[in-house]
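Section 3.1: Structural characterization of target chains.
Under the original work plan, the team committed to producing a structural model for every single-chain target entering the pipeline before any wet-lab resources were allocated. The record below documents one such target. The sequence was received from the expression subgroup and is listed exactly as submitted; it comprises 305 residues.
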Amino acid sequence: MTLQQLKYVIEVARSRSISKAAQNLFISQPSLSNALKELEKEIGITIFSRTNRGIIITPEGSEFLQYARQVIEQTDLLENRYSNTQSPQHHFSVSAQHYAFAVSAFVRLLSDYDSDEYEFALRETKTYEIIEDVKNLRSEIGIIYVNDFNRKVIQKFLREGNLMFHELFVAKPHVFISSKNPLVKQDYVTLSDLEPYPYLSFEQGDYNSFYFSEEILSTISRKKNIRVSDRATLFNLLIGLNGYTISTGIISYDINDDDIVAVPLKVDELITVGFITHKHVSNSPLATIYIQYLRETIETEQLLP
């Protein structure tokens, strides 16, 4: 086993593709494949499963990656301490449901990060893919919510993926609506109040189960439904069509303007938002800082009017 082989494994896990990893490593694809096969044969486990949909990290591979990352990180620290080489390029990735506070914390992390080289990623994506990203170490942090309706199902997937849920905050449901919507004048709204308006939600692709919905009360039948894939489109439709969506009520005014308003929704529900991590992987320094920025951003934005 060599340090080079460990770096190969880490790059394949990050790229999710042997061909792309080979390009990034500046070696041929056959050479990379052979190096991985030799390593797997030497240690007696299968690190990656090759499927028609790409590379999948096995449970044994996830554990191996934990140790490989630690070895390479310590090697980099040793080299930087006793040589004049430049600091290595750092990688950090977050997968999240569509929360503005996650973006705000990410922006702050990048603003404060003093390095000439880095590769960061923020993926606002589907609930199932967030779980898969953290499970397969594509992202260190995943941000999702649970409530009484989806908790058992989500916890089942987390257990099977060796993942842990860490609570960030508990919120009462709100609706996001345009500042020009007539409902904005009310102290709170009810489900009956919302019936005339289009309901907007984030589509979940192949895993479009009620349990993976990004919005609570997903089983309620509505006359007007619109599914979108990104937050900017949803907000534009909220304004242009006088639609609504259901969320935590936390709005980042650094990112969003005053055109969107949060109004309390009168239902007997609570939303618990948190982040997930892999049980077998310790938080990197960047992940630790990002989590702290998440908490500070949420605390600040909860205090805003």
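The longest strand covers residues 163-171.
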